[in-house]
Amino acid sequence: MVEFVNLTLSGITSGMVYAAVALALVLIWRATRIVNFAQGGMLMLTTFLAWSVIDRGGSYWVALAVALIAGLALGAIVERIVIRPVENKPPLNAVIVTLGLLVVLQAVAGMIWGGQPRSYPPAFTIQGFKLGETGLLLSPFDLFVIGAVAVVMVALILLFRRTDLGLKLRASAFAPEVARLLGVRVGRMLTLGWALAAVVGSLAGVLIAPSVFVGPNQFDAVLVFGFTAAVIGGLDSPVGAVVGGLVLGCALSYVTGYISSDIVTLGALAALITVLMVRPNGLFATSAGRRV
Length: 292
Known about the structure:
This protein is mostly helical. It has a single domain (2-278), classed as ABC transporter involved in vitamin B12 uptake, BtuC, CATH 1.10.3470. The chain has helices at 2-32, 39-55, 60-83, 91-113, 140-162, 164-174, 176-181, 186-212, 220-233, 238-258, 264-278; strands spanning 130-131, 134-135. Strands 1-2 form a two-stranded antiparallel ribbon. Strand 1 and strand 2 (134-135) form a beta hairpin. Helix 2 (39-55) crosses helix 8 and helix 9 packs across helix 10. The chain is globular and about 65 Å long.
C-alpha cells in the first residue's frame, strides 16, 4: 500500500510537470492554431538564462523573473520574425518551421553554454515529508510545482472564458477576417498569444530543471510527454492539459514501479492510445460546432 501511495504521489508530481508543458502548448494552440514543436527549445533557452543568473550568485526568484521576462520577449520575437511569414500558409509549413527552430535553438545553446548538463537548484527542499516512520515521495518543492501549475491553469481558464482579451485571442485564431472587421488587431493578438505561451513554457522549464538538469537536449523527452498530455486532455482545454498530465504521470509511474523503467515510452503510448480509443479528440475536447 505504501508503495502504491508513493508511486501515485510521484506520478502526480511528474504529471504536473508534463501538464506545465502541455499548458504552454494548449495556450499557443488556442491563440494561434499552431502546434509549437519548438516549445522545448524555447523553454530550454530561457531556463539556461535563469541558470546563468543563479550561477553568478543571483537568487532563485530573480532567476525565475529573468526566465519569464526572457520568455515573453522570445515568444514575441519568434512570432514576428519566424512564424508570421507562414501563418497564412498550409499548416505543415508552420510545423516544419517550429521543428527547424527547435534545432537552431539547441545548436545556439550548445555553442553558448556547451553540451554538459548543469544542475539547477530547487526553490525549496526536495526531502520528502514523513508520515510517522514512513517516508513519502512528496516534498515542499513538489507542492510548489503542483501549486504553480494549478495557478497557471486557473489563470488560463479565466483568461479565455472571462476576459475580453481571451475572446480576442480566440477570435483571432479561429476567424481572423471577422475579427479584423470587428476592430481586433489580429497581428498583435497572435504575437501576444506566442508571448504568453512562451512565459508559461519558461515557468515549466524552471520547474522541470531540478529534475532533468539543464542542457541543450535535456528537455526533449519532457516536450514529448507534454505534447502527449495535451493530446490526451484535448488541445483546446487547459483543464484537459492538467488532467492529461496527471493521467500520463501516474501511468508512467506505475509502469516504472511495477514493471520496468525500460518501457516507460511504451507506457506513454499505451495511455495515449487507450484515451484516444475512448475519446478520439481528447478527454476534454469541445464539440466541432464551436462558437468563438
